[in-house]
Amino acid sequence: MDQRTTIVEAEAEPGGVPQSLRELAGDWGADQEVFRHVHWGKAMMWIFLLSDTFIFSSFLVSYMTMRSSVTAPWPNTAEVFGLDVGGVSVPLLLIAIMTFVLISSSGTMAMAVNFGYRRNRKATAALMVATALLGATFVSMQAFEWTKLIFTEGVRPWYNPMGAAQFGASFFMITGFHGLHVSIGVIMLLIVASKVLRGHYDRRGDYSAVEIAGLYWHFVDLVWVFIFAFFYLW
Amino acid sequence: MATIADDLRPLHHPKTWIGKYVWSQDHKVIALQYASTAIGVGLVALVLSFMMRLQLGFPGRFHFIQPENYLQFVTLHGMIMVVYLLTALLLGGFGNYLIPLMVGARDMVFPFVNMLSYWFYLLSVIVLLSSIFVPGGPTGGGWTLYPPQTITGGTPGSNWGIILMMVSLAIFIVAFTMGGLNYVTTVLQARTKGMTLMRMPCSVWGIFVASIMGLLAFPALFVAAVMTILDAVAGTSFFVPQIVSMGKPTEHVGGSPILYQHLFWFFGHPEVYIVALPAFGIVSDLISVHARKNIFGYRMMAWAIIIIGALSFFVWAHHMYVSGMNPYFGFFFATSTLIIAIPTAIKVYNWLLTLWRGDIHLRVPMLFAIAFLFTFIHGGLSGLFLGNVSVDVPLSDTFFVVGHFHMVMGVSPILVIFGAIYHWYPKITGRMWNETLARAHFWITFLGAYAIFLPMHYIGILGVPRRYYALGETAFIPPSVHYANMGITIAAGLVFAAQFLFFTNMIWSYFRGPKADPNPWGGASLEWQTPDTPPTHGNWGAKLPTVYRWAYDYSVPGAPQDFIPQSEPPGAAGSRAPA
């Protein structure tokens, strides 16, 4: 019999907690590893992302309470983040493109992880570089958006000609913090990609690093979906 | 794939002195670096508290304590004690030292990041202390750092001090995150063979759950710090509404001070348990070892730690009953606050029942553990007063609150820390401390703590407010308050002086103490079974220990010794093996 089962049964008492719950606790409390055959780095990245989720949640919840309590009018985000195409103002165009780019980068990242586990060095590295390029495109479009907002619209962290000052403050803070995450992700992807290319993970026989970088990247994309929904679409 | 614990590739052993002791990746060295830095900065906070007592006991007698200095002392004392001493010492110090040894690992899973964690912590301490030397001095906004007063003129340190404080906190959070990820992942994924979660010593349980809580609670403080810095530096209005300060309207408009309070206490209340849970865990082990008896209700002890940890995320607004938030919130938060009393009471009863008919050895670590039971029960009982909205409102911002939280999260964890240091000192240094000095230190500290904090409850019930520089001629304050204040200050002076017995003892014994037995208390948990004392880099020599039982096999009938080490196989030496 498996050692885990014996432990669960040995600790069982008549009555009390149902068998199924006891087995659940037994699985979690099992010998040596809670997450069986999971690389520690992967577990650590998941826990870090959980912590980071709390940071972004705090930012977004703070922004939402502020937005519902300010007395000055909140600018119409569809217009502010619109783009003029041939004289026609298309609402949310830039942001739609940015979102598309970032979501696509999650696709290339997922493929990179797949090729990594198939030990295909070249394809893995190429897809990771593609992911990093899409990420860099996202950051540069964000820079364009910031420039437009600062120089064309005159928005400042402490001042907003279109209404509530908190609009500019929370916009720069939240997108800035997210942009920082994307930039760090781009650097991380490039480092891991170069290690892939040099055969570092082939020698170690362990491609987990690609997947761990991928976890972070998907998380940053997911956070963007929430920022997109709560900041731009609201 | 083999587990990490089975990974027998040799660790990278640095050859140079700097590699071994300065840029060290060994969890034991990092633990000592964390602990000594934390105790050092804690000494600064201890001196500050004595300066406050001098002013309160003998108002106006000391000209170097001006009102703004007093406020700065209050602020720095509180923040240093809670974050830079207690959190850093219990998690960075004890967490680092004990986790790998107690779960049978060679080191933390990511030693490099663990090392970075310490250096970031040191940086945060340096940034914090540098605020003493900038124009305007450190911030004097109270340790909770509520805006708007922290960043508007008239508050000490509103120009430089508050920014450095917030930057330092942000750096601390980065440092803690790097350490905390290591502690949690090591417990989850790097235990030795046979070490199920339900065989871990309570110390590891406490530190483990507190680390998870830290990873989820510190983000709120991080966000609050970033937003305060932006308010102060970039002129944003996250927290500051339109107000008139010093006769002039500020440039801010539309911010919400209560938002800051929610963010701060979403961190602040779990923080109480981030400090308390490791202390709970460690004290369980001290009591069990020195009473030569298994911990009563081990499984409930572990579950109570988990439940307290989870519940503590739903009680934060009980710090805000008088803040002006919606009064209906008070109902919810009072209820959830009182529910926490249930798992906490389970723990207290289990400690008492562990002592019941135990073979109690009143050695110094045990004295501290029993003292903890006194102070913690007292602090917990006054907590019942403050948890109820209608009782809290008149007691809010009085010395009763000061007495309560110093008893429950100041004195109690500190007593456990002292007990733990005396308990593990022989393992850490290989030498034994001086018994006489240690006993003198204990009795002065324990009785002195009562002499300091018990009268504060009385002063508080009379309505004396906290954080006041001087009370002056106030009709409702009887002369007894002034005598009490004087008495508290004298007691504080004695306790302050007694700490030098501790430091003398620790430092002298480190060099001149007699060689200690590798397992002087007869402990059953893994850290006492290391092949070397003090444990060397890699902890376990060539082969990792295998665990066959829980950590509490004391006074087992029929066993040859009064304890059975966790690593002893069943059947060996004719002992019975409970699961």
Automatic annotation (TrEMBL), chain A:
What Pfam families does this protein map onto?
COX3
Name the membrane topology term: Multi-pass membrane protein
Q: Alphabetically list the UniProt keywords.
A: Cell membrane, Membrane, Transmembrane, Transmembrane helix
Which InterPro entries does the UniProt record give?
Answer: Cyt_c/ubiquinol_Oxase_su3, Cyt_c_oxidase-like_su3, Cyt_c_oxidase_su3-like_sf, Cyt_c_oxidase_su3_a-hlx
Q: Which residues form the signal peptide?
A: none
**Which CDD domains does its entry note?**
Heme_Cu_Oxidase_III_1
Residue stretches spanning the membrane: 46-66, 86-113, 125-144, 164-193, 214-233
Locate the Heme-copper oxidase subunit III family profile domain: which residues? 45-234
Q: For this protein, what is any one GO molecular function term?
A: cytochrome-c oxidase activity
GO BP terms? aerobic electron transport chain
Taking the record's annotation, the residue ranges forming a coiled coil are none
One GO cellular component term? plasma membrane
Which cell locations does it reside in? Cell membrane
Oligomer status and interactors: Heterooctamer of two A chains, two B chains, two C chains and two D chains.
Q: Which PANTHER family does this entry report, sorted A to Z?
A: CYTOCHROME BO(3) UBIQUINOL OXIDASE SUBUNIT 3 (PTHR11403:SF2), CYTOCHROME C OXIDASE SUBUNIT III (PTHR11403)
Q: What does this protein do?
A: Cytochrome bo(3) ubiquinol terminal oxidase is the component of the aerobic respiratory chain of E.coli that predominates when cells are grown at high aeration. Has proton pump activity across the membrane in addition to electron transfer, pumping 2 protons/electron.
Q: What is this protein called?
A: Cytochrome bo(3) ubiquinol oxidase subunit 3
Protein source organism: Sphingomonas horti
